[in-house]
Specification:
By secondary structure, the chain is an alpha+beta fold. The chain is about 35% helix and about 25% strand. It folds into four domains: about 130 residues, Penicillin Amidohydrolase, domain 1 (Orthogonal Bundle); about 220 residues, Glutamine Phosphoribosylpyrophosphate, subunit 1, domain 1 (4-Layer Sandwich); about 70 residues, Aminohydrolase, N-terminal nucleophile (Ntn) domain, beta-sheet knob region (Penicillin G acylase, beta-roll domain), CATH 2.30.120.10; about 120 residues, Orthogonal Bundle (Penicillin amidase (Acylase) alpha subunit, N-terminal domain), CATH 1.10.1400.
């Protein structure tokens, strides 16, 4: 204050200017507040991204419900119908197994309990979100399919049921795993980076968000900006979820990756009379008689009985030959994940952010974080059961359910979870690898944690590719961050081609030599014009990678192993067999990747780039067979965001399949060309930028 007094005394005109500036700012602020207070509006930009300005938080939630309906109304209502366990009643027998799963696991009943457990304030927010859905449906009934209107009106309990089905009974555990009574590698994936100022060319922290999910159903991402008193956050969430799940604001941001987390167990029960054996005694099942309604083709409704048995472990999901399997899942008593995500988005610094995280309401997912102050963090987040015995592998199998020694009842507190803040390296990454390889030198050591918390290794080739790009670049610019995100280089090829090519040339086979020439000329990438990628990927698919390498994975060399061919002669024989098929199918060994692998959404059909992460490709796109040896993209890179915490924040993003699924929307696949060109688009967060790219304004 003394400095200001002396300055203004010597130069009084500065005082006048200073005071006028304050008055102008106050007047402008009052005008802005008055404008915001008058109404709530949605500004839709030219990519169909809703920018919500709420006069209060409750109005913002209502507007978000409206916006999701405008973009994904048919899908959203269908998902909510499934979460009720009534989809077969609405739409027929193909949803019967889905309804049985939802009702057996108790999703609708628990959603009602969760609703009553919300704080009064947040319960009002959920009611407002549902009200926005219903208001849109009432005003725009003609834009919705007739068959989904049976779900209306939507209640807040439906929102929570959908969340519960997505998080706990799709991501934590899904019915396909349980049906096979085995824990499969998750089909969902993701990359996440956090780069500290010391490794950033601008001297500002950066964040990369990059989930890979199916391009359909409950896995679709929805991009939005939510602004209301106390919040201005930009990011994405899965359709039907009322808060942003991956987001950033002016001061911080986070992303999630699917972590190597085990939050469920299948318990084998020995059936005795009308119960099961437990600790030497026979315990009765808790039995509930339910029914499932099924719409027939002629429109009539039939009813099928559903008897749900529950043991001390959880519901019985299979029963056969005197044995039953009961399912135990974490987090069923933790209903606060939506409010936690909301408070994460409202946080302004690391302390506030971690205060929200410490509630441990989110059942799984790594958290990768960066902020304006230059902090970066990796948290192996999850509701990890406190288990009395065994390592990670032990808990992947079916667990004896006749003893309390195997029955977990508690989860590890926040301070027990693998976590690192501001590592020496200046960077963090996760590509669905265990937390031990998040950075080098190693910052999180497995010996400091229970052996069941995460597998010891080996890491996957995509994660090794991720580490290589970060490890080899001392200063990463924002443009390089975007470029690295789109890398299609195959780490697997870098490990094996230096052995495979000479072995093929020495084999004496003309076909093997031609194959070697193609692989030698190949750029080792899966770009649309890459020639050799199809041949190599087809060869890799036929190889048993567990037995392919001469040097196995080693904890001492986790970034560069496994490596080398163990049996070059057998590898060349496989190459010849694959080459015969490739040449016959495509007419050439050096067919371009994009001629075989396509991205098709709506009426657009474009050459693809990217591929299976198992090949060590960072830019993940997963394909399903199409006609005549061609493949169509069905999953992979979905919401992508690159963020630099400069002033102002610099951000680019993309949802390749577009931000809408409603018939007739111009935003179905309108970002696909950018996706095919390996480009992101600018994020418009400032009102002036949004108005400059305004497509529609909706005042609520």
């Amino acid at each position: 204050m003394g400095y200001l007094y002396k300055t203004f005394r010597r130069k009084p005109f500065r005082l006048l200017s200073f005071l006028l500036g304050i008055i102008f700012a106050l007047v402008l602020g009052c005008q802005t507040s008055a404008r915001v207070a008058k109404s709530t509006e949605i500004l839709w930009d030219t990519y169909g991204i809703p920018h919500i300005y709420g006069k209060d938080v409750q109005s913002a939630f209502q507007a978000f419900g409206w916006a999701q309906m405008q973009s994904h109304g048919n899908l959203l209502l269908r998902l909510y119908g499934q979460a009720r366990g009534r989809a077969a009643e609405y739409w027929g027998e193909k949803y019967l197994e889905s309804d049985r799963w939802v009702l057996t696991t108790g999703i609708p009943e628990r959603a009602s309990s969760w609703y009553n457990s919300q704080s009064p304030t947040f319960r009002n927010y959920l009611d407002a979100f549902a009200a926005g859905i219903n208001a849109y449906a009432k005003e725009h009934k003609e834009k919705l399919d007739d068959e989904v209107e049976a779900v209306l009106p939507v209640k807040a309990e439906d929102v929570l049921a959908h969340l519960h089905r997505v998080l706990h009974f799709t991501f934590v555990v899904n019915p396909e795993e349980v049906a096979g009574v085995a824990k499969e590698e998750s089909k969902a994936g993701s990359n996440g980076w956090a780069i500290a100022p010391k490794r950033s060319e601008s001297g500002k922290a950066m964040l990369l968000a990059n989930p890979h999910l199916l391009w359909s159903d409950l896995f679709l991402w929805y991009e939005a900006q939510v602004t209301a008193p106390g919040i201005d956050a930009y990011g994405a969430t899965l359709v039907g979820i009322p808060v942003l799940a991956i987001a950033f604001n002016d001061n911080l941001g986070w992303t999630h990756t699917v972590n190597t987390f085990d939050g469920w167990d299948a318990y084998k029960l020995e059936l005795v009379e009308n119960g099961y054996r437990f600790d030497g005694k026979v315990r009765p099942f808790q039995t509930t008689n339910l029914s499932v309604k099924v719409r027939q083709k002629d429109g009539t409704i039939s009813t099928q009985p559903l008897v749900v048995k529950r043991s001390i472990h959880g519901p019985v999901v299979t029963e056969k030959d005197g044995q039953a399997i009961a399912l135990r899942v974490v987090g069923l008593d933790r209903p606060g994940v939506l409010e936690q995500w909301w408070d994460m988005a409202r946080s302004q610094n690391l302390k506030q952010f971690e205060t929200a995280l410490q509630r441990l309401q989110l059942p799984m997912f790594t958290v990768m974080y960066a902020d304006r102050d230059g902090h970066i963090m990796h948290l192996f987040n999850g509701q990890v059961p406190v288990r009395s015995q065994g390592d990670f592998q032990y808990w992947q199998g079916v667990i004896p359910g006749d003893t309390s020694k195997t029955l977990w009842t508690k989860i590890h507190p926040y301070q027990d979870l693998p976590r690192v803040v501001d590592p020496e390296s200046g960077w963090l990454q996760n590509a669905n690898d265990p937390p031990w390889t998040t950075t080098f030198p190693t910052a999180i050591k497995p010996d400091n944690y229970p052996p069941y918390i995460a597998p010891p290794g080996p890491t996957n080739f995509r994660a090794q590719r991720s580490v290589r790009m970060l490890f080899e670049d001392d200063k990463i610019s924002f443009d390089e961050l975007v470029e690295y995100k789109h890398s299609t280089r195959m780490e697997l090829a870098d490990r094996l081609l230096d052995d495979l090519i000479p072995a093929a040339r020495q084999s004496g086979s003309e076909l093997a030599r031609r194959s070697a020439d193609v692989l030698q000329a190949w750029d080792r990438q899966a770009n649309a014009d890459s020639k050799g990628a199809v041949l190599f990927a087809a060869w890799a698919e036929e190889m048993n990678l567990d037995k392919t390498f001469s040097k196995p994975w080693s904890e001492d060399s986790p970034r560069t192993t496994p490596d080398g061919l163990a049996d070059p002669k057998s590898a060349v024989a496989t190459l010849e067999a694959v080459a015969t098929k490739v040449e016959k199918t495509y007419g050439a060994l050096d067919v371009a990747w994009g001629d075989v692998f396509r991205i098709t959404v709506s009426n657009k059909d474009l050459p693809a780039n990217g591929g299976n992460g198992g090949l060590g490709i960072f830019r993940v796109v997963n394909f399903t067979p199409k006609a005549e040896g061609r493949f169509q993209a069905v999953a992979g890179d979905s919401f992508v965001a690159a963020i630099e915490f400069s002033q102002p924040v610099k951000a680019m993003a993309l949802i390749g399949y577009g931000n809408s699924t409603q018939p007739g929307s111009p935003h179905v696949s309108d970002q696909l060309q950018l996706f095919a060109r390996k480009q992101l688009r600018s994020v418009w967060r400032e009102r002036s930028d949004i108005l400059a790219h305004l497509e529609e304004r909706k005042v609520l």
